[in-house]
Amino acid sequence: MDTIPLSYTLGLSALLFSIGVAGVIVRRNAIILFMCIELMLNAVNLAFVSLSATAGVQGQVFVFFVIAVAAAEAAVGLAIIIAVFRHSESVDVKNFSLLRW
Known about the structure:
Helices cover 77% and strands 0% of the residues. It is built from three helices and no strands. α1 packs antiparallel against α2 (30-55) and α2 (30-55) packs antiparallel against α3 (58-88).
C-alpha cells in the first residue's frame, strides 16, 4: 500500500489555508467569515495529522485541541451573529461596531 507523500498533504493544507485567508480578507458577510476561519482551522488540522507520522503522536493531540477551540468559536461566534442580526437585521461585519464599548 502506497502512502501519500508529505509534500502533497502539506501543499493541500497550505492551499486550503490560503483560500481561508483570502476569504477572511475579501468577504464582509459574518457567516462566510466564520466558514473561512473554520477552513483555516481544518487546514491546520490536516497539517498536524500529516506531520504526526514523522513527529509522533503530538500532532494528533493538537488536533483535538484545535477541534475544541473550533467548536467553542462556532458556538460563541454564531451567538454573537444572531444577537447582531436581531438588532440590525443584517450580518454585515460593518454592523458589528455596536459591540464596542
